[in-house]
Amino acid sequence: MDRLATTIRPYAWGSRTALPALLGTEPTEDPQAELWMGAHPGAPSGVDRGHGPQTLDQVIAADPERELGAATVRRFGPTLPFLFKVLAAGEPLSVQVHPDLAQAKAGFVVEEARGIPLDARERNYRDANHKPEMLCALDEFTGVCGFRRPERTAALLERLGVPGLRPVADVLRTKPEPEALREALTLVLTLDQATVPALVAETGNALRRLAAEAASADEASDEASDKASDEAVALADYAVLADHYPNDPGLLSALLLNHVVLRPGEAIYLGAGVPHAYFRGLGVELMANSDNVLRAGLTPKHIDVPELLAVVRFEATEPSVVPPQSVPDNPGEQLYPVPIDEFRLSRYELGEWPLPTGTPQIVLCTSGQATLTDEAGQRLTLSPGQSCFIPADNPPVTATGSATTLFRATVTL
User: What span, in angstroms and rounded, lies between the C-alpha atoms of 392 and 375?
Assistant: First the structure.
């Protein structure tokens, strides 16, 4: 078992307090957005097996079958198939979408052939892998996910009463669903840049007005309070985007998407082509080992509209909040099921429970203190925010702790 030395990514949207509170450290003036755990070359975790510090990707490359297991190497190749993070959003992230595996491979080959450096601003595909992901909330977590039904979005835009949004509402009212969603997103992403600041400001003001009306309805009527309260929160969240990104059409693209609120312990799965953005909160995020992102706004980073439109799935969906499920043959485990094999996320509320071995895994403590002991006598204690890598060939491990929460990331074979 290897305690991981992890990297914190200081992206501008990161919270200045959430990760320090988890780790028990003093905040700094800088945002702290993501705590990375894994072997992604962008920020591989460090390990030390008594011969000096190494990165986890170096350790795995030296003996993939020992570290990952022969079955994992046959299925996914000689690299760790997933990337584990703690994500701390203090401000909204970009509206974004991830490619499927075929799109990622094709896009990577094209950009390599063009000689675009991997770290270039205009690079879309930084690797040849897809990036399905799951986020599990540690505190209340809000964002947007998937296209809302066109008629519902049209009704919202009409309530806002912003003249510049009428063409979008008309498209949503009159075209078949896939065509309506494609045309609506294209309209907001190809606006004359000179008109964007005024349109975003007017839309933000209209959202604040509707949010205030919904909050008043919440106070006035117990019967409608849940619906009115949820609407007030959603409208206020959208309005905040206008304040953070006044010159960016990202607010308008976000308005096409479902607002979602995750309570602690709830998760959401995001497959290829599903547009989404996170607004605020602290959560555990697990994804395939990729950094491929195409953006639709709320960012100063590169936006490639044609490539984005080629990747997005233009279908309306309802956000599917995933509660944990009990695992019959391992009663201490609460599993968050996903339809892919590259990662498997589960939660343990300790007690004393065995952690299955035989696959590569990263174990993260988010509350309390956990002691991991294997049958060879190795012992490791984790405090909140600390994590460890357990190789596939490690002897069986037992985790113990009081008032402790562990998250376990591994693969499905």
Answer: 14
For residues 385 and 188, give the distance between their C-alpha atoms in angstroms, rounded to a whole number. 40
Cβ atoms 80, 39 nearer than 8 A: yes
- Active-site residues, by number, are 295
CB 294 within 8 A of CB 96: yes
Encode pLDDT of 78-87 as tens digits.
Answer: 999 999 999 9
CA-to-CA separations, 8 to 22, 32, 138, 220, 238, in angstroms, rounded: 13, 6, 18, 45, 28
Cα–Cα distance, 364 to 38 (Å, whole number)? 11
Provide the whole-model pTM: 0.93
Roughly what angle, to the nearest 10 degrees, separates helices 150-160 and 196-220?
A: 90
List, for residues 51-108, the tens digit of each pLDDT value.
Answer: 899 999 999 999 999 999 999 999 999 999 999 999 999 999 999 999 999 999 999 9
1, 148, 325, 380 from 377: Cα distances, Å: 11, 53, 31, 10
